[in-house]
Amino acid sequence: MRICYTSDLHGSERHYRQLTDLVRAARPDLLILGGDLFPDGPPEDPAPAQVAFVRESFLPLARGWRRELPSLRVACILGNHDWAESERFLTGRPDEPVTLLAPGRSWKMGGVHFLGYPCSPPAPFWAKEFERLDQPGDPLPAEGGVVYTNGAPRRVSAAEHFLAHPTIQAELAALKPPAAPWIFVCHAPPHDTRLDRLPNLDAPIGSKAVRAFIERHKPLCALHGHVHESPTVTGAYADEVGGALCVNPGQDPQRLFAALFDTADPRGTLRHTVLGA
Q1: CA dist., res. 119 & res. 34, Å (int)
Q2: CB-count exposure of residue 56 (10 Å: 0-12, 13-18, 19+)
Q3: Angle, to 10 degrees, between the axis of helix 13-26 and the axis of helix 59-68?
Q4: For the chain, domain boundaries
Q5: What percent of the chain has pLDDT over 90?
Q6: 2-272: which CATH architecture?
């Protein structure tokens, strides 16, 4: 099964246009989108604007991909810049061409199971609904951010938000990995790999909980995003964790970064649309 994977499009018209060109050229069986797919929205009330983008731009694009390639399937997770209102909008829409990979259940295509997880450790951005502390005992970040309550945005302190939710470690521990072969689609990259580096920091910023989950459960491969610059910083968009192939294609402001591979031989067929093999 031929897979095209990209992440962190942030509602960019340029990137979605380039993605349409890539889908036409590569003709994958499955397109997977790894979170941070939509624009943040305006500060005064961001979620309705993001949902409008999903309804008026994203889903019509996906319908167009399916019209050109009727056999194409599209699956996605959300990320820390996406809002739970968008998750609710995408959930339970069997007539739409996009499958939302939810943590509580796996999805199967072509003999392969897929499990998604959207949350990432605290980041210096305002949207907090898909952010969690990574592990028990981790320090709270200095700043809080914005969540939605009863359909309206609300500012929350770091303690109010992060202490009200389980850690990433706890949420992953509650997941039941599907039968092999399976692919983990997780917005946050694993800690201390070639996939979680920023140009202005010496320390890795990936999730230790995600790394431990991959090491323990050994998916066929794991697909990540979140840290756009990492492939440029490290010179690599793939790494090995516990014997599992992990991929973060990164993202570029001008050119779409994406990865292509076949599930029959992920390592042997993996290539990057810009960086090559």
Answers
A1: 11
A2: exposed
A3: 20
A4: 2-272
A5: 93
A6: 4-Layer Sandwich (3.60)
